[in-house]
Write a structure and sequence with these properties.
The protein is mainly alpha-helical. 41% of the residues lie in helices and 3% in strands.
Length: 140
């Protein structure tokens, strides 16, 4: 992990919680609070990358395990579901949250390598046969 990454993650980790702790999710903040709401945004026509950015923005405000509790459905393809499992596991480790049990299901591990980004990745992605660097999850 590079110096920038360490600084950026430190800033995200130290962000104070919002003044309205229960004010999360599409209905209240306009940003998804879990993978079900992420799916809802995408199925309503939002670009996947923008929807993920909104999800991450919301997660980084609250940093709670309920954001990662719901499994992504078959609405997403197998690669995306495996990647979301990697995201859930990585964020759980990064923010010292319980890792959701669903991320260990065989369906969240790809049989063939998928290079999602040009850089190397962390164990949460490598074990799923995904080349992805979680630096791309940084949102400031």
């Amino acid at each position: 992990m590079g110096k920038f990454d360490k600084v950026a993650w430190s800033i995200i980790e130290q962000m104070p919680p919002p003044s309205m702790p229960g004010h999360k999710g599409l209905a209240l903040s306009g940003r998804p609070k879990d993978f079900a709401e992420l799916e809802s945004l995408v199925s309503d026509g939002e670009n996947f990358d923008i929807a993920v950015a909104l999800f991450l923005d919301e997660f980084y405000c609250f940093k709670t395990e309920d954001f990662l509790a719901a499994e992504p459905t078959d609405f997403f393809d197998a690669r995306t579901r495996a990647w979301l499992a990697g995201v859930a596991e990585y964020l759980s480790h990064r923010f010292r949250l319980p890792v959701p049990t669903w991320v260990g299901k065989p369906e969240y591990f790809l049989p063939e390598f998928w290079k999602k980004s040009d850089d190397s990745g962390e164990q949460e992605f490598r074990q799923r046969n995904i080349g992805y660097n979680p630096r791309h999850l940084i949102r400031l």
